[in-house]
Amino acid sequence: MRQFPILLVAAGVAAAQTYTAVAIPGAAGSPGFANILALNNKGQVLGDACNNNNCTGLNRFPAVWSNGAMTPLPIPSGLSYVAQPAYYGINDSGVVVGTLQAGTDRFGIAIDHVVIWTNGVPTVLPDAPIAACLGPGYSVTSASFGINAAGHIVGATTYLPQGNTQSCSSAWVYNGSSFRLLPVPIPSQCSALPPGYYPGVRLGFEAAINDADQVLENLVNSFCAPPYIPPPGFPAADPFLIETSGSTSFLPLGALAGATGTTINDLGNVLGYYTSPTHLVVWDKGGIHDLGPSGYGHMNQLGQVVYTQVSGGSILGFELWQNGVATPIQVPAGLILSGQLQSTVTTSFNDAGQFTLSIGSLAHYLLSPSGSCGQDVTAQVQITRGGFRYNRTTGHFTQTVTVTNTGASPITGPISLALDNISSNASLFGIAGATLCDVPQGSPYLNLAAASLDPGVPQSGTVEFIDTANTGITYGIRVLAGPGGR
Amino acid sequence: MKKRLILLPALALGLVPLAQADITYTFSLDTTPLIGHGTFMVDLQFLDGSGLPGDLNNNTVKLTSFAFGGGSASGGGTAAGGASGSLASGVTLKDTAFFNEYFESFTPGTLLAFTIVTTNVLDGGGTPDLFTLAILDHNGIELPTNGSADEFLDVTLAGGANPQVETFGSAPGGAFSLAAPDVQPFSPAAVPEPSTCAELLTAMLGVGVLRRVHARK
């Protein structure tokens, strides 16, 4: 493959990056968030909301905050909301996935169902069919753990026996029309256990999915000894990936006794943690990275991690990590009052570099990188698109885009291609960020290698898309130029 | 009768395009470096510009007369979307879907050669249909080339007189070093085909009839 003229590298965040903060109502709001659950590239914040500090019954519900407006998500009849942050997610189309409770079975076990809100309208998903347990005599409960750009959902379903003896459980990916049940890799060390102990491992609570439909899960070790999880930890956990082909692979743990993965991005980078004390861990092409004592970390598609820095059980501040370098985040002066730091944590992060800080359930802030903006020079250039080809090695659709300065003067770089309104089936791969100050907000962009655009000189680059449905890819292009944000 | 009066002279002068002319190329790739390394796959992709209904089904790429220079095709492949046929019988790729693909195993000989016949209609959305060829190893992974997606051939159907043809050789450092394929416009011999002679004869007869009609009036 030839050298890509497009730099598929993330835009670094300068150490002197400053932020502006916008307040998001806390639990005392009417309504306001008790907890922030997720943030998308459009600046929409998904949260666990209350009314005037009343967080019980119908006064607690999921809601989306956007540009100062709080919109509760309606709860379908017969279901009720139970605050479970791990069950909720929002994608860049504003589609929300969550889990609502339908009641309990005869043993008092909660029966839940997965719900998606599209444009605020809820739809209850069917429970995943598991062949061995279909038929009468079961109560079925399902939960969601994440949603990707295409609206594919990762979740799990359990068939609880209500008189018969066999139970069934499986994690799955739902693509909008069908379920793909996910395999559980049983380490060979666990296959020779005494009767009643097999398989000796179980799935961890969380799961995550990226735009390529790769799924991150965790296998918790209850009875199986090392070496598949190195000593000395026992029991321990090991994150593993499930490809669309069904193949699985465990993440290397290095010297760790165990770890739990929480997030996977389109680069295949994984964010996780181990205890105790809690350290955040990143797996990327460079191996495994220990971010040190920390908590409440969040990773974006650039591989950046924003997190709460901890030492000796005390919160020191907040950092942004990328490619092995951690940079302190300068929170606007006066945002966190004296005595509030120890209850302040990062709660979400997006590709535009925005993140949320939560001071308990009292107050929340959306922090956005500030500074000058680049210029939209789309009217000064001619853009020519090549056709698509699917690259089996990368699993991406590739396309050549050529930009030519049609004016008489050079256009000063850096030069960025921002792709607007990408069809929901597709995601741009290897992004350098998402637009924030050049509207529309939340469009992913790439940087051209060219330092500038000289008049009449075409500059080409290859763009790559993830499109697991193999269906048409459409989008608009803006060319943004010059120093400053995008 | 007026339409006929116009039509017949026009036909005689060859001015009536009954359909956009297909464009023909010959393709030849020296596969000698692959000999003795097992089987590979020919991967033929034809992707629509947008996949939108208005852009579908307006181009066709036909690939015929496959030759392997002493090698051979496996006899059966995998088709997706608007792909059909085989390396033995010829492969037809229509943009009936966004993603149209045919791939089939082959045992390399000294060359991989075939004829390409394609239409050249630009899709409305500004992204052209693209026909590409790659060689896959036995695991289904592209042999690396200097193409942006490890392809040896791009044929971009961007309208105009001819498609845009680009070829690529192996990327440096790969397991195999293949030169970029040779792709040439197909130039038929100057001898008129029988069907062409028949059309000319019919047209001349038509002109003759017109003259007689005019003379009677």
Strand proportion of chain A, as a percent range, falls in over 45%
DSSP summary: helix tally of chain B: 2
Mean pLDDT of chain B, rounded to whole units?
84
Any idea what the shape of chain B is?
globular
Helix content of chain B: 10-25%
The average pLDDT score of chain A comes to 92
Describe this structure in words.
The complex is a heterodimer of chains A (about 475) and B (about 220). Chain A is about 0% helix and about 50% strand. Chain A is an all-beta fold. Chain A has a 7-stranded antiparallel beta sheet, with no helix packed on it. In chain A, strands 1, 31, 35, 37, 38 and 41 form a 6-stranded antiparallel beta sheet that branches. In chain A, a hairpin with a 3-residue loop joins strand 29 and strand 30. Chain A is globular, with a radius of gyration of 23 Å. In chain B, a hairpin with a 6-residue loop joins strand 10 and strand 11. In chain B, helix 1 crosses helix 2. The longest helix of chain B has 23 residues. A 6-stranded antiparallel beta sheet of chain B has the order 5-6-3-8-1-12, with no helix packed on it. Chain B starts with a helix and ends with a helix. Chain B has about 220 residues and is of the alpha+beta class. The chains are: A mainly beta (about 475), B alpha+beta (about 220). The interface between A and B is medium-sized, with 22 and 38 residues.
Summarize the structure.
The complex is a heterodimer of chains A (486) and B (217). Chain A is mostly beta strands and 486 residues long.
Write the layout of secondary structure elements.
The complex is a heterodimer of chains A (486) and B (217).
Chain A: E1 6-7, E2 19-24, E3 32-39, E4 45-50, E5 60-66, E6 69-72, E7 80-81, E8 89-90, E9 96-104, E10 110-118, E11 121-124, E12 138-147, E13 153-161, E14 168-174, E15 179-181, E16 201-203, E17 208-209, E18 215-221, E19 237-242, E20 248-250, E21 260-264, E22 270-274, E23 279-284, E24 287-299, E25 305-311, E26 314-322, E27 325-328, E28 344-349, E29 355-359, E30 363-369, E31 375-376, E32 381-391, E33 396-405, E34 411-412, E35 415-420, E36 427-428, E37 433-434, E38 444-448, E39 452-453, E40 458-466, E41 476-481
Antiparallel strand pairs in A: 1-38, 2-30, 3-4, 4-5, 5-6, 7-9, 8-9, 9-10, 10-11, 12-13, 13-14, 14-15, 16-18, 17-18, 18-19, 19-20, 21-22, 22-23, 23-24, 24-25, 25-26, 26-27, 28-29, 29-30, 31-41, 32-33, 33-40, 34-39, 35-38, 35-41, 36-40, 37-38
Chain B: H1 2-12, E1 23-30, E2 40-47, E3 60-67, E4 72-80, E5 83-86, E6 90-94, E7 99-107, E8 111-118, E9 129-136, E10 153-157, E11 164-167, E12 182-185, H2 194-216
Antiparallel strand pairs in B: 1-8, 1-12, 2-7, 2-9, 3-6, 3-8, 4-7, 5-6, 9-10, 10-11
